[in-house]
Amino acid sequence: MSDIKKFLYVNRKPPYGTIYALESLEVVLIGAAFEQDVSLAFLDDGVFQLTRGQNTDAIGVKNFSPTFRALGDYEVTKLYVERESLDERGLTEGDLQEITYEDEDDDWEEKPSIRVVSRAEMAEIMADQDVVLSF
Amino acid sequence: MKIGVVVSEGPYTHQAADTAYQFVKAALDKGHEVPRVFFYHDGVNVSTRLSVPPQDERHIQKQWTALAQEHEIDLVVCIAAAQRRGLLDENEAKRQGKDAHNIAEGFRISGLGQLIEMGIQTDRLVTFGD
What we know:
The structure holds 2 protein chains of 2 kinds.
Chain A (H helix, E strand, L loop, with lengths): L5 E6 L8 H12 L5 E6 L36 E4 H6 L11 E4 L5 E4 L1 E4 L1 H9 L3 E4 L1
Parallel strand pairs in A: 1-2, 1-7, 2-3, 3-6
Antiparallel strand pairs in A: 4-5
Chain B lengths: L1 E6 L8 H14 L3 E7 L20 H12 L2 E5 H6 L5 H6 L11 E4 L2 H9 L2 E5 L2
Parallel strand pairs in B: 1-2, 1-5, 2-3, 3-4
């Protein structure tokens, strides 16, 4: 394991209804130990994974959304959210959780992990990866 | 070229495990290497040795077991996904106090790290799923 590869985890599905979102996050958390260059992408219904104020009491499944806020501690600091997917669902960046990380290269300044990008920019981000895992 | 394969949907319900199988065979025929196939989400269900499809249908688990043995492919089943869905090898069954285990020959249960490692060590990662 000499070279560092660029890993992109693509999240396209809503947080509940299927297990893809939860099991994607499990891969991200385990994968963090491998010290690769990790990014996450949220598009289509995947943008719902990051919405604030999730409450799953009525459906009897675990609300795992707080885990996203811990990603900074795992040095997972690039969460790309597609603007068009937000727009199409009547969401804005303000509907998303605040997720931050402490930048070790900038005196541990707290910075936002979520970066809203256009569909065209998302395509470029994808093209730039070595490994794309789609969930 | 070294190709890593992910199967992320269950057998019979979904074509992913079949298409992945055909893909791996074709890749090997072309002289590529497929060192590992990783089963995740409902894909872990491919590994049960208790599947009994009608005799005139393909047996997906046996196809994979035979292919893996012939070409020394490492068939890895994600432990977290497997345990949720009731797939245990002998050790895990013992550890969890269960009275049965059901992982087929040629498959092994291991962690998600094996998926990441496969991504690092192969030239291409190909996912079969939705």
